[in-house]
Protein backbone atom coordinates (compact mmCIF):
# COMPACT_ATOMS: atom_id res chain seq x y z
CA UNK A 1 0.00 0.00 0.00
CA UNK A 2 1.42 3.27 -1.10
CA UNK A 3 1.25 5.81 1.70
CA UNK A 4 2.42 8.94 -0.08
CA UNK A 5 -0.05 11.78 -0.20
CA UNK A 6 -0.18 12.00 -3.98
CA UNK A 7 0.08 8.70 -5.80
CA UNK A 8 0.76 8.79 -9.55
CA UNK A 9 -0.29 5.17 -10.04
CA UNK A 10 -3.76 6.20 -8.84
CA UNK A 11 -3.71 8.92 -11.47
CA UNK A 12 -2.88 6.39 -14.19
CA UNK A 13 -5.53 4.09 -12.85
CA UNK A 14 -8.33 6.58 -12.64
CA UNK A 15 -7.88 8.74 -15.75
CA UNK A 16 -9.48 6.20 -18.14
CA UNK A 17 -12.45 5.93 -15.75
CA UNK A 18 -12.81 9.69 -15.52
CA UNK A 19 -12.65 10.06 -19.29
CA UNK A 20 -15.28 7.36 -19.68
CA UNK A 21 -17.43 9.35 -17.26
CA UNK A 22 -16.57 12.56 -19.09
CA UNK A 23 -18.12 11.13 -22.26
CA UNK A 24 -21.39 10.71 -20.33
CA UNK A 25 -20.99 14.23 -18.91
CA UNK A 26 -20.64 15.64 -22.43
CA UNK A 27 -23.54 13.61 -23.77
CA UNK A 28 -25.77 14.81 -20.92
CA UNK A 29 -24.71 18.40 -21.65
CA UNK A 30 -25.48 18.02 -25.35
CA UNK A 31 -28.87 16.35 -24.84
CA UNK A 32 -29.74 18.81 -22.07
CA UNK A 33 -28.73 21.75 -24.28
CA UNK A 34 -30.89 20.62 -27.19
CA UNK A 35 -33.89 20.30 -24.85
CA UNK A 36 -33.15 23.63 -23.17
CA UNK A 37 -32.66 25.51 -26.46
CA UNK A 38 -35.86 24.21 -28.03
CA UNK A 39 -38.09 24.18 -24.95
CA UNK A 40 -36.73 27.56 -23.84
CA UNK A 41 -37.80 29.05 -27.17
CA UNK A 42 -41.25 27.47 -26.90
CA UNK A 43 -41.69 28.83 -23.37
CA UNK A 44 -40.59 32.30 -24.46
CA UNK A 45 -43.04 32.29 -27.37
CA UNK A 46 -45.81 30.95 -25.14
CA UNK A 47 -45.30 33.95 -22.86
CA UNK A 48 -46.30 36.13 -25.83
CA UNK A 49 -49.38 34.05 -26.58
CA UNK A 50 -52.55 36.04 -27.25
CA UNK A 51 -54.43 34.49 -24.31
CA UNK A 52 -53.72 34.71 -20.58
CA UNK A 53 -54.79 31.09 -20.25
CA UNK A 54 -51.43 30.22 -21.80
CA UNK A 55 -49.29 33.09 -20.52
CA UNK A 56 -50.08 32.78 -16.81
CA UNK A 57 -49.46 29.02 -16.37
CA UNK A 58 -46.28 29.23 -18.44
CA UNK A 59 -45.00 32.11 -16.31
CA UNK A 60 -45.81 30.18 -13.12
CA UNK A 61 -44.01 27.10 -14.43
CA UNK A 62 -40.90 29.10 -15.36
CA UNK A 63 -40.78 30.87 -11.98
CA UNK A 64 -41.30 27.67 -10.03
CA UNK A 65 -38.72 25.60 -11.88
CA UNK A 66 -36.02 28.24 -11.79
CA UNK A 67 -36.55 28.99 -8.09
CA UNK A 68 -36.27 25.40 -6.85
CA UNK A 69 -33.13 23.26 -6.57
CA UNK A 70 -32.06 21.08 -9.48
CA UNK A 71 -31.02 18.36 -7.03
CA UNK A 72 -34.51 18.06 -5.55
CA UNK A 73 -36.08 18.18 -9.02
CA UNK A 74 -33.82 15.29 -10.06
CA UNK A 75 -34.79 13.23 -7.00
CA UNK A 76 -38.47 13.97 -7.58
CA UNK A 77 -38.58 12.83 -11.18
CA UNK A 78 -36.28 9.91 -10.44
CA UNK A 79 -38.56 8.40 -7.80
CA UNK A 80 -41.78 9.24 -9.63
CA UNK A 81 -40.75 7.69 -12.96
CA UNK A 82 -38.77 4.60 -11.99
CA UNK A 83 -39.24 3.01 -15.40
CA UNK A 84 -37.07 5.57 -17.20
CA UNK A 85 -33.29 5.26 -17.29
CA UNK A 86 -31.39 7.60 -14.95
CA UNK A 87 -29.57 9.14 -17.90
CA UNK A 88 -32.81 10.02 -19.70
CA UNK A 89 -34.22 11.56 -16.50
CA UNK A 90 -31.00 13.38 -15.70
CA UNK A 91 -30.53 14.93 -19.12
CA UNK A 92 -34.22 15.84 -19.41
CA UNK A 93 -34.48 17.46 -15.98
CA UNK A 94 -31.25 19.35 -16.60
CA UNK A 95 -32.62 20.47 -19.96
CA UNK A 96 -35.99 21.56 -18.54
CA UNK A 97 -34.33 23.38 -15.63
CA UNK A 98 -32.14 25.39 -17.98
CA UNK A 99 -34.99 25.85 -20.48
CA UNK A 100 -36.60 28.14 -17.91
CA UNK A 101 -33.42 30.23 -17.74
CA UNK A 102 -33.05 30.25 -21.51
CA UNK A 103 -36.69 31.26 -21.97
CA UNK A 104 -35.82 34.50 -20.14
CA UNK A 105 -32.87 34.97 -22.47
CA UNK A 106 -35.04 34.53 -25.54
CA UNK A 107 -37.65 36.82 -24.02
CA UNK A 108 -35.06 39.58 -23.70
CA UNK A 109 -34.04 38.93 -27.30
CA UNK A 110 -37.63 39.02 -28.53
CA UNK A 111 -38.36 42.19 -26.55
CA UNK A 112 -35.28 43.72 -28.18
CA UNK A 113 -36.76 43.39 -31.69
CA UNK A 114 -38.18 46.83 -32.56
CA UNK A 115 -41.95 47.15 -32.49
CA UNK A 116 -41.90 48.37 -36.08
CA UNK A 117 -40.94 44.88 -37.19
CA UNK A 118 -44.15 43.44 -35.73
CA UNK A 119 -46.17 46.28 -37.24
CA UNK A 120 -44.58 45.86 -40.66
CA UNK A 121 -45.38 42.15 -40.58
CA UNK A 122 -48.99 43.00 -39.68
CA UNK A 123 -49.11 45.59 -42.47
CA UNK A 124 -47.98 42.91 -44.93
CA UNK A 125 -50.73 40.71 -43.44
CA UNK A 126 -48.26 37.99 -42.66
CA UNK A 127 -49.70 35.13 -40.67
CA UNK A 128 -48.47 34.94 -37.06
CA UNK A 129 -46.46 31.79 -37.59
CA UNK A 130 -44.60 33.28 -40.51
CA UNK A 131 -43.98 36.53 -38.63
CA UNK A 132 -42.23 34.60 -35.88
CA UNK A 133 -40.28 32.40 -38.21
CA UNK A 134 -39.21 34.87 -40.87
CA UNK A 135 -39.07 38.23 -39.09
CA UNK A 136 -38.81 38.06 -35.29
CA UNK A 137 -36.79 34.96 -34.46
CA UNK A 138 -33.90 35.49 -36.88
CA UNK A 139 -33.27 38.89 -35.26
CA UNK A 140 -33.97 37.81 -31.70
CA UNK A 141 -31.91 34.63 -31.67
CA UNK A 142 -28.78 36.09 -33.20
CA UNK A 143 -28.42 38.56 -30.35
CA UNK A 144 -28.84 36.01 -27.60
CA UNK A 145 -26.39 33.39 -28.86
CA UNK A 146 -23.62 34.29 -26.37
CA UNK A 147 -26.07 34.19 -23.46
CA UNK A 148 -27.22 30.74 -24.52
CA UNK A 149 -23.56 29.73 -24.66
CA UNK A 150 -23.03 30.95 -21.10
CA UNK A 151 -25.95 28.91 -19.86
CA UNK A 152 -24.69 25.81 -21.68
CA UNK A 153 -21.36 26.16 -19.87
CA UNK A 154 -23.25 26.57 -16.61
CA UNK A 155 -25.24 23.45 -17.41
CA UNK A 156 -22.03 21.57 -18.10
CA UNK A 157 -20.81 22.47 -14.61
CA UNK A 158 -24.09 21.28 -13.11
CA UNK A 159 -23.88 17.80 -14.64
CA UNK A 160 -22.26 16.34 -11.45
CA UNK A 161 -25.70 16.64 -9.84
CA UNK A 162 -26.72 13.76 -12.07
CA UNK A 163 -24.50 11.53 -9.94
CA UNK A 164 -27.13 11.60 -7.18
CA UNK A 165 -29.51 9.62 -9.38
CA UNK A 166 -26.72 7.17 -10.32
CA UNK A 167 -25.90 8.53 -13.77
CA UNK A 168 -22.35 7.30 -14.41
CA UNK A 169 -20.89 10.66 -15.31
CA UNK A 170 -17.41 11.82 -14.39
CA UNK A 171 -17.96 12.77 -10.74
CA UNK A 172 -19.90 9.57 -10.12
CA UNK A 173 -16.88 7.63 -11.37
CA UNK A 174 -14.60 9.75 -9.18
CA UNK A 175 -16.73 9.15 -6.09
CA UNK A 176 -16.96 5.43 -6.73
CA UNK A 177 -13.24 5.04 -7.28
CA UNK A 178 -12.53 7.23 -4.27
CA UNK A 179 -14.66 5.22 -1.88
CA UNK A 180 -13.46 1.85 -3.25
CA UNK A 181 -9.77 2.66 -2.94
CA UNK A 182 -9.99 5.36 -0.30
CA UNK A 183 -8.04 7.74 -2.57
CA UNK A 184 -9.94 11.00 -2.73
CA UNK A 185 -7.24 13.60 -3.32
CA UNK A 186 -6.21 12.41 -6.78
CA UNK A 187 -9.69 11.70 -8.13
CA UNK A 188 -11.32 14.99 -7.13
CA UNK A 189 -8.29 17.07 -8.09
CA UNK A 190 -8.30 15.46 -11.52
CA UNK A 191 -12.05 15.89 -11.88
CA UNK A 192 -11.68 19.60 -11.06
CA UNK A 193 -8.81 19.91 -13.55
CA UNK A 194 -10.83 18.27 -16.33
CA UNK A 195 -13.72 20.66 -15.69
CA UNK A 196 -11.40 23.64 -15.83
CA UNK A 197 -9.66 22.45 -18.99
CA UNK A 198 -13.00 21.95 -20.72
CA UNK A 199 -14.89 25.02 -19.53
CA UNK A 200 -12.28 27.78 -19.65
CA UNK A 201 -11.50 27.63 -23.40
CA UNK A 202 -15.22 27.33 -24.13
CA UNK A 203 -15.89 30.46 -22.12
CA UNK A 204 -13.18 32.26 -24.12
CA UNK A 205 -14.98 31.25 -27.31
CA UNK A 206 -18.29 32.59 -25.99
CA UNK A 207 -16.51 35.82 -25.07
CA UNK A 208 -15.21 36.16 -28.63
CA UNK A 209 -18.68 35.55 -29.99
CA UNK A 210 -19.96 38.32 -27.68
CA UNK A 211 -17.33 40.71 -29.03
CA UNK A 212 -18.06 39.80 -32.63
CA UNK A 213 -21.78 40.42 -32.17
CA UNK A 214 -20.90 43.75 -30.63
CA UNK A 215 -22.08 43.29 -27.05
CA UNK B 1 -52.94 12.33 2.44
CA UNK B 2 -54.23 12.14 6.01
CA UNK B 3 -51.24 10.17 7.25
CA UNK B 4 -48.96 12.52 5.36
CA UNK B 5 -50.37 15.55 7.16
CA UNK B 6 -50.20 13.78 10.54
CA UNK B 7 -46.59 12.86 9.92
CA UNK B 8 -45.88 16.39 8.69
CA UNK B 9 -47.32 17.72 11.95
CA UNK B 10 -45.26 15.25 13.99
CA UNK B 11 -42.00 16.16 12.29
CA UNK B 12 -42.71 19.89 12.17
CA UNK B 13 -39.97 20.46 14.75
CA UNK B 14 -37.36 18.62 12.67
CA UNK B 15 -38.41 20.37 9.51
CA UNK B 16 -38.25 23.74 11.22
CA UNK B 17 -34.73 22.98 12.43
CA UNK B 18 -33.78 21.78 8.94
CA UNK B 19 -35.08 25.00 7.36
CA UNK B 20 -32.89 26.91 9.80
CA UNK B 21 -29.86 24.85 8.74
CA UNK B 22 -30.59 25.58 5.08
CA UNK B 23 -31.06 29.29 5.77
CA UNK B 24 -27.94 29.38 7.95
CA UNK B 25 -25.80 27.80 5.23
CA UNK B 26 -27.26 30.21 2.66
CA UNK B 27 -26.71 33.33 4.76
CA UNK B 28 -23.22 32.41 6.00
CA UNK B 29 -22.18 31.32 2.50
CA UNK B 30 -23.55 34.57 1.09
CA UNK B 31 -21.68 36.70 3.64
CA UNK B 32 -18.39 34.95 2.88
CA UNK B 33 -19.12 35.23 -0.85
CA UNK B 34 -19.89 38.95 -0.51
CA UNK B 35 -16.61 39.66 1.28
CA UNK B 36 -14.61 37.63 -1.26
CA UNK B 37 -16.50 39.22 -4.15
CA UNK B 38 -15.47 42.71 -3.05
CA UNK B 39 -11.86 41.73 -2.33
CA UNK B 40 -11.41 39.84 -5.61
CA UNK B 41 -13.47 42.31 -7.64
CA UNK B 42 -11.42 45.28 -6.45
CA UNK B 43 -8.11 43.43 -6.85
CA UNK B 44 -9.11 42.48 -10.40
CA UNK B 45 -9.13 46.24 -11.18
CA UNK B 46 -5.69 46.84 -9.68
CA UNK B 47 -3.07 48.87 -11.50
CA UNK B 48 -0.52 46.14 -10.96
CA UNK B 49 -0.45 43.31 -13.44
CA UNK B 50 0.65 40.75 -10.83
CA UNK B 51 -2.24 41.60 -8.48
CA UNK B 52 -4.71 41.54 -11.35
CA UNK B 53 -3.28 38.25 -12.55
CA UNK B 54 -3.62 36.59 -9.16
CA UNK B 55 -7.19 37.82 -8.69
CA UNK B 56 -8.15 36.70 -12.21
CA UNK B 57 -6.64 33.26 -11.69
CA UNK B 58 -8.57 32.72 -8.47
CA UNK B 59 -11.80 33.96 -10.06
CA UNK B 60 -11.44 31.80 -13.17
CA UNK B 61 -10.44 28.77 -11.14
CA UNK B 62 -13.54 28.84 -8.95
CA UNK B 63 -15.83 29.71 -11.86
CA UNK B 64 -14.33 27.09 -14.13
CA UNK B 65 -14.57 24.08 -11.82
CA UNK B 66 -17.92 22.82 -10.68
CA UNK B 67 -19.26 23.74 -7.22
CA UNK B 68 -20.12 20.09 -6.66
CA UNK B 69 -16.49 19.10 -7.28
CA UNK B 70 -15.17 21.94 -5.09
CA UNK B 71 -17.35 20.88 -2.18
CA UNK B 72 -16.36 17.24 -2.49
CA UNK B 73 -12.73 18.24 -2.78
CA UNK B 74 -12.93 20.21 0.46
CA UNK B 75 -14.87 17.46 2.21
CA UNK B 76 -13.04 14.34 0.99
CA UNK B 77 -9.67 15.38 -0.44
CA UNK B 78 -8.53 18.19 1.86
CA UNK B 79 -8.32 15.95 4.96
CA UNK B 80 -5.80 13.80 3.03
CA UNK B 81 -3.52 16.86 2.93
CA UNK B 82 -3.83 17.15 6.70
CA UNK B 83 -6.47 19.88 6.96
CA UNK B 84 -9.69 18.65 8.44
CA UNK B 85 -12.45 21.28 8.43
CA UNK B 86 -14.21 20.84 11.75
CA UNK B 87 -17.78 20.43 10.50
CA UNK B 88 -19.48 19.45 7.26
CA UNK B 89 -21.62 22.58 7.45
CA UNK B 90 -18.54 24.81 7.68
CA UNK B 91 -17.04 22.91 4.75
CA UNK B 92 -20.11 23.71 2.65
CA UNK B 93 -20.13 27.36 3.74
CA UNK B 94 -16.51 27.70 2.61
CA UNK B 95 -17.25 26.02 -0.74
CA UNK B 96 -20.29 28.26 -1.31
CA UNK B 97 -18.30 31.34 -0.31
CA UNK B 98 -15.42 30.59 -2.67
CA UNK B 99 -17.58 29.60 -5.63
CA UNK B 100 -20.17 32.38 -5.41
CA UNK B 101 -17.51 34.86 -4.32
CA UNK B 102 -15.80 34.28 -7.66
CA UNK B 103 -19.04 34.90 -9.57
CA UNK B 104 -19.75 37.90 -7.37
CA UNK B 105 -16.30 39.35 -8.08
CA UNK B 106 -17.30 39.72 -11.73
CA UNK B 107 -20.50 41.48 -10.65
CA UNK B 108 -18.53 43.91 -8.47
CA UNK B 109 -16.00 44.60 -11.20
CA UNK B 110 -18.67 45.09 -13.86
CA UNK B 111 -20.79 47.39 -11.68
CA UNK B 112 -17.81 49.57 -10.74
CA UNK B 113 -16.78 49.85 -14.38
CA UNK B 114 -20.34 50.84 -15.28
CA UNK B 115 -20.27 53.99 -13.12
CA UNK B 116 -20.04 56.91 -15.60
CA UNK B 117 -16.56 58.29 -16.15
CA UNK B 118 -17.65 61.82 -15.21
CA UNK B 119 -18.26 60.61 -11.65
CA UNK B 120 -14.63 59.54 -11.35
CA UNK B 121 -13.43 62.81 -12.84
CA UNK B 122 -15.72 64.79 -10.57
CA UNK B 123 -14.27 63.08 -7.52
CA UNK B 124 -10.75 63.77 -8.74
CA UNK B 125 -11.66 67.42 -9.35
CA UNK B 126 -12.88 67.65 -5.75
CA UNK B 127 -9.44 66.51 -4.64
CA UNK B 128 -10.73 63.34 -3.01
CA UNK B 129 -8.30 60.59 -2.15
CA UNK B 130 -8.66 57.25 -3.93
CA UNK B 131 -10.32 55.75 -0.87
CA UNK B 132 -12.80 58.62 -0.45
CA UNK B 133 -13.63 58.48 -4.13
CA UNK B 134 -14.48 54.78 -3.88
CA UNK B 135 -16.40 55.01 -0.62
CA UNK B 136 -18.35 58.22 -1.17
CA UNK B 137 -18.88 58.40 -4.90
CA UNK B 138 -18.31 55.19 -6.82
CA UNK B 139 -19.47 52.36 -4.55
CA UNK B 140 -22.85 53.87 -3.54
CA UNK B 141 -23.73 54.08 -7.23
CA UNK B 142 -22.18 50.76 -8.23
CA UNK B 143 -23.93 49.04 -5.32
CA UNK B 144 -27.36 49.63 -6.89
CA UNK B 145 -26.24 47.86 -10.04
CA UNK B 146 -24.87 44.96 -8.02
CA UNK B 147 -28.03 44.10 -6.12
CA UNK B 148 -30.10 42.42 -8.89
CA UNK B 149 -27.25 40.13 -10.01
CA UNK B 150 -26.38 39.45 -6.36
CA UNK B 151 -30.00 38.44 -5.87
CA UNK B 152 -29.69 35.91 -8.69
CA UNK B 153 -26.52 34.53 -7.14
CA UNK B 154 -28.18 34.36 -3.71
CA UNK B 155 -31.03 32.27 -5.09
CA UNK B 156 -28.54 30.03 -6.89
CA UNK B 157 -26.71 29.61 -3.61
CA UNK B 158 -29.96 28.68 -1.88
CA UNK B 159 -30.63 26.19 -4.67
CA UNK B 160 -27.17 24.67 -4.13
CA UNK B 161 -27.73 23.98 -0.43
CA UNK B 162 -29.28 20.52 -1.02
CA UNK B 163 -25.63 19.52 -1.55
CA UNK B 164 -25.48 19.62 2.26
CA UNK B 165 -27.61 16.48 2.42
CA UNK B 166 -24.91 14.66 0.41
CA UNK B 167 -22.27 15.40 3.04
CA UNK B 168 -24.31 14.24 6.06
CA UNK B 169 -25.83 17.57 7.11
CA UNK B 170 -29.51 17.38 8.15
CA UNK B 171 -30.71 20.18 5.90
CA UNK B 172 -34.16 20.70 4.39
CA UNK B 173 -33.62 18.14 1.61
CA UNK B 174 -32.43 15.57 4.12
CA UNK B 175 -35.56 16.06 6.25
CA UNK B 176 -37.73 15.90 3.13
CA UNK B 177 -36.28 12.50 2.40
CA UNK B 178 -36.89 11.43 6.01
CA UNK B 179 -40.50 12.53 5.59
CA UNK B 180 -40.76 10.46 2.43
CA UNK B 181 -39.32 7.41 4.19
CA UNK B 182 -41.72 7.84 7.14
CA UNK B 183 -44.88 8.33 5.08
CA UNK B 184 -44.14 6.46 1.86
CA UNK B 185 -45.74 9.45 0.09
CA UNK B 186 -43.09 10.16 -2.51
CA UNK B 187 -44.91 12.70 -4.64
CA UNK B 188 -46.31 14.70 -1.71
CA UNK B 189 -43.01 14.77 0.17
CA UNK B 190 -41.03 16.08 -2.77
CA UNK B 191 -43.74 18.52 -3.78
CA UNK B 192 -43.75 19.85 -0.23
CA UNK B 193 -39.97 20.19 -0.38
CA UNK B 194 -40.05 22.08 -3.68
CA UNK B 195 -42.73 24.43 -2.40
CA UNK B 196 -40.74 25.24 0.75
CA UNK B 197 -37.66 26.04 -1.37
CA UNK B 198 -39.80 28.21 -3.64
CA UNK B 199 -41.14 30.16 -0.65
CA UNK B 200 -37.64 30.59 0.78
CA UNK B 201 -36.42 31.87 -2.60
CA UNK B 202 -39.29 34.36 -2.72
CA UNK B 203 -38.55 35.62 0.81
CA UNK B 204 -34.90 36.18 -0.11
CA UNK B 205 -36.01 38.03 -3.26
CA UNK B 206 -38.30 40.29 -1.23
CA UNK B 207 -35.45 41.14 1.13
CA UNK B 208 -33.13 41.92 -1.78
CA UNK B 209 -35.81 44.11 -3.41
CA UNK B 210 -36.10 46.01 -0.12
CA UNK B 211 -32.33 46.41 -0.02
CA UNK B 212 -32.39 47.80 -3.55
CA UNK B 213 -35.14 50.29 -2.65
CA UNK B 214 -33.10 51.49 0.33
CA UNK B 215 -29.95 51.86 -1.77
CA UNK B 216 -31.84 53.83 -4.41
CA UNK B 217 -33.58 56.04 -1.87
CA UNK B 218 -30.21 56.96 -0.40
CA UNK B 219 -29.17 58.35 -3.77
CA UNK B 220 -32.50 60.12 -4.23
CA UNK B 221 -33.49 57.73 -7.02
CA UNK B 222 -36.23 56.08 -5.02
CA UNK B 223 -39.02 54.36 -6.85
CA UNK B 224 -40.85 53.99 -3.56
CA UNK B 225 -42.22 50.64 -2.50
CA UNK B 226 -43.69 49.75 -5.85
CA UNK B 227 -40.98 47.35 -6.88
CA UNK B 228 -40.88 45.54 -3.58
CA UNK B 229 -42.98 42.49 -4.44
CA UNK B 230 -41.82 41.87 -7.97
CA UNK B 231 -40.19 38.61 -8.87
CA UNK B 232 -36.50 38.30 -9.48
CA UNK B 233 -35.39 39.20 -12.98
CA UNK B 234 -33.38 36.72 -14.94
CA UNK B 235 -29.92 37.53 -16.16
CA UNK B 236 -30.43 37.78 -19.92
CA UNK B 237 -26.69 37.67 -20.64
CA UNK B 238 -26.06 34.47 -18.70
CA UNK B 239 -22.76 35.97 -17.54
CA UNK B 240 -23.54 35.61 -13.86
CA UNK B 241 -24.25 31.95 -14.39
CA UNK B 242 -21.89 30.65 -16.93
CA UNK B 243 -18.72 31.59 -18.55
CA UNK B 244 -15.53 32.93 -17.16
CA UNK B 245 -13.03 34.89 -19.16
CA UNK B 246 -13.89 38.28 -17.75
CA UNK B 247 -16.97 40.21 -18.72
CA UNK B 248 -16.70 43.34 -20.82
CA UNK B 249 -18.57 46.32 -19.38
UniProtKB/TrEMBL annotation, chain A:
The keyword Transmembrane is assigned to this record: yes
GO cellular component terms, semicolon-separated: ATP-binding cassette (ABC) transporter complex
Residue stretches making up the ABC transmembrane type-1 domain: 22-206
Protein name per Swiss-Prot or TrEMBL: Ectoine/hydroxyectoine ABC transporter permease subunit EhuD
Entry similarity comment: Belongs to the binding-protein-dependent transport system permease family.
Annotated InterPro entries: AA_ABC_transptr_permease_3TM, ArtM/GltK/GlnP/TcyL/YhdX-like, Ectoine_EhuD, MetI-like, MetI-like_sf
Gene Ontology MF terms: transmembrane transporter activity
From TrEMBL, chain B:
Gene Ontology terms describing biological process: amino acid transport
Transmembrane segments: 15-43, 72-98, 187-211
Alphabetical keyword list: Amino-acid transport, Cell membrane, Membrane, Transmembrane, Transmembrane helix, Transport
Keyword Protein biosynthesis in record: no
Sequence ranges assigned to domain ABC transmembrane type-1 in this UniProt record: 19-208
MF terms (GO), sorted A to Z: transmembrane transporter activity
Membrane topology designation: Multi-pass membrane protein
InterPro entries associated with the record: AA_ABC_transptr_permease_3TM, ArtM/GltK/GlnP/TcyL/YhdX-like, Ectoine_EhuC, MetI-like, MetI-like_sf
Subcellular location: Cell membrane
Gene Ontology, cellular component aspect: ATP-binding cassette (ABC) transporter complex
CDD domains linked: TM_PBP2
Family label: Belongs to the binding-protein-dependent transport system permease family.
Protein name: Ectoine/hydroxyectoine ABC transporter permease subunit EhuC
Taxonomic source organism: Actinocatenispora comari
Amino acid sequence: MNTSIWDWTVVEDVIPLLLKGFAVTLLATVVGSVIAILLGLLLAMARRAPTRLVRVPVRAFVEFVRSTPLLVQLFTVYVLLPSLSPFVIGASVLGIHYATYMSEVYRAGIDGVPKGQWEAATALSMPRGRTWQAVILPQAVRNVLPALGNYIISMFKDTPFLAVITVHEMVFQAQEYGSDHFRYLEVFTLAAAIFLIASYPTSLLVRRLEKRLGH
Amino acid sequence: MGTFLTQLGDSAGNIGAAILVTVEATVLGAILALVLAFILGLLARSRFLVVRGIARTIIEFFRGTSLYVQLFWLYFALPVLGFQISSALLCAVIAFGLNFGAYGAEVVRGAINAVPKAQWEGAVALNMTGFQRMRLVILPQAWIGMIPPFNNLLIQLLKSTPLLSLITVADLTFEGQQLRAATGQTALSYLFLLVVYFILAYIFTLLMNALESVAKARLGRGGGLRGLFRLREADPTGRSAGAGAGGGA
